[in-house]
Amino acid sequence: MRDVFIYDHVRTPRGRGKSDGSLHEVPPVRLATQVLAALKARNNLPGDGIEEVILGCVTPAGEQGATLQRIAPLLAGFDDSVPGLQLNRACASGLESVTIAAAKIAAGSGEMMVGGGVESMSRIPMGADGGGPHGMDPWTTFQRPFVMQGVSADLLATINGYSRDDLDAYGVESQRRAAHAWENGYFKNSVVPVTDVLGTVLLDHDEHLRADTTMQSLGALKPAFTMMGAQFGFDRLALQRYPELDRIEHVHTAGTSSGIVDGASAILVGSTEGGERLGLKPRARIRSTVSVGSEPVLMLDGPTPACRKALKIAGMEASDIDLWELNEAFAAVPLRLMDTLNIPHDKMNVCGGAIALGHPLGATGGMIAGTLLDELERRGLSTGVVTLCAAGGMAIAMVIERV
């Protein structure tokens, strides 16, 4: 099997995922087109310079469905010979796309491909695809109970004894780190401003960020998932699965949950031969990557077994890793990973995360993988792990090493 390298990456800024968000007027195919075009331009890629584009998308409905992943590279100036693949592994989709591209290259199916993702949550909201079997088929839910993710996050916090103050403190720090990163230009080399059809810049920064967040402002927020847990029966389902608990403590709020945003990401991966052919220098080698399943009611604890397996394949220990990027789906998720793998907070999500910046579902994996690589380079460090939990009880992890 051939070594596979990351050669470059770009992303859009994250736009607020509402009708008043700066990217709401931009169809998802244009978000994807702009990151692909930027990747092509900054690496001087010829039209046939890549052999496939694989983009994650969690809600592939309406204008975000069908063959968006095929159309976007054509609009970005790549040749007709470049196919596109749509991929959905829930929140892990963006990184899974990179994984599949890397696996194809390692197996000899190509030399240079693009992975990443796109999600316009302001135009195609969550649930626009009907919600799948758990949302449509009572028999499915009877066979395997389903709990919405916010209740799963509160379940995770309850089981592990994380208090409201624990979560709020993590949320405040995510905002502080993200604001610091933007103020000091840490994202400037990777964020591609989104323009309209006339070339006018619509957004050049992550607009979900709330730099003035404090413990007091978060403390004033009401728990976000109490009503869903009680009125929709999710609490009862969770307690049936975990009868050792008396109740679910609803401790997550909008300030300790990932933000709803629009965005796209693209990562250029390839073999040694592919890079030499195009005159490109690799930035990092993919040491290992795995996807795992976890118990689907608790759902959000999968990053721990995923990271352990990825590290084992790479022949490494958690103590060997310089920096970690974990999608902040909810504050309890990184707290749990830090506890189970004994990760210091100063190595985890050093530029903030989705609580501050937002989580554009299918694009997030590519975004945070790029942030990890940028920070390893900026700090002169070597190894990193990027990981995400995913709906239904799944998770993904990738180990990278700078070259």
Shape: globular
CA distance, first residue to last residue = 18 Å
Helix content: 25-40%
Residue windows where pLDDT falls under 50 for at least 5 positions: none
The averaged pLDDT comes out at 96
Strand content: 15-25%
The assigned structural class equals alpha+beta
Q: Counting H and I runs of at least 4 residues, what is the number of helices?
A: 15
| Rg estimate, integer Å | 20 Å
Descriptive notes:
The chain has helices spanning 28-42, 68-75, 93-106, 132-136, 138-143, 149-160, 164-183, 215-219, 226-231, 234-241, 272-278, 303-314, 332-341, 354-357, 364-379, and strands spanning 5-11, 15-16, 53-56, 84-87, 112-120, 194-195, 201-203, 261-270, 284-293, 323-326, 383-390, 394-402. By secondary structure, the protein is an alpha+beta fold. Strands 1, 2, 3, 4, 5, 8, 9, 10, 11 and 12 form a ten-stranded mixed beta sheet that branches. It has a two-stranded antiparallel sheet with strand order 6-7. Helix 2 (68-75) links the parallel strand 3 (53-56) and strand 4. The protein is 37% helix and 18% strand. The model has no long low-confidence stretch (mean pLDDT 96). The chain starts with a strand and ends with a strand.
In short, what is this structure?
By secondary structure, the protein is of the alpha+beta class.
